[in-house]
Design a protein that fits this description.
By secondary structure, this protein is mainly α. Helix content is about 65%, strand content about 0%. It has two domains: about 70 residues, no CATH class; about 60 residues. It has seven helices and no strands. It is rod-shaped. It starts with a helix and ends in a 7-residue tail after the last helix. About 10% of the residues are buried. It comes from Actinokineospora spheciospongiae.
Length: about 140
């Protein structure tokens, strides 16, 4: 970690993240309750990234993907799929009503909805993999 960054002041969010990382280390059995309590006090007293780095020198980095309960897909992807599913269900219901009201064979026109569905699936795949990679790269500043 660069000397300049070690001297930068930490935020309350950094303290919460450090406390969560200590909690995870304690849950894994890497810290006794006494060590956990002592280090947690150190996190609360820390003012710079260098102070936090000293607390974590003998602990391996904890993957934030495991400690934070986040979805693998961004929120906007879930919203798009929700609305698209509603659209598909409505279209299928309208086709079914028309099909059973008429005695003629009615072309299955909802098949044309497969094209935008494939496009949405491709965009979802790209967004989800980019989001997962971003989550995996996230490391706390005190880890350097």
């Amino acid at each position: 970690m660069a000397q300049q960054q070690r001297n930068m002041r930490i935020s309350d969010e950094d303290r919460r993240g450090a406390a969560e990382e200590l909690r995870a280390a304690h849950a894994q059995g890497r810290l006794s309750l006494t060590e956990y309590d002592t280090r947690l006090d150190g996190v609360n007293r820390a003012t710079t990234y260098g102070d936090l780095a000293k607390i974590f020198t003998d602990l391996p980095a904890v993957s934030h993907a495991r400690t934070e309960r986040r979805s693998s897909a961004p929120k906007w992807v879930r919203i798009v799929w929700l609305w698209w599913t509603v659209t598909l269900v409505i279209n299928l219901a309208v086709w079914a009503l028309v099909r059973f009201q008429l005695s003629d064979d009615v072309h299955f026109w909802p098949v044309w909805l497969l094209i935008p569905t494939i496009a949405i699936a491709a965009v979802t795949y790209r967004a989800t993999t980019a989001h997962a990679a971003k989550q995996a790269r996230r490391t706390p500043a005190w880890r350097g």
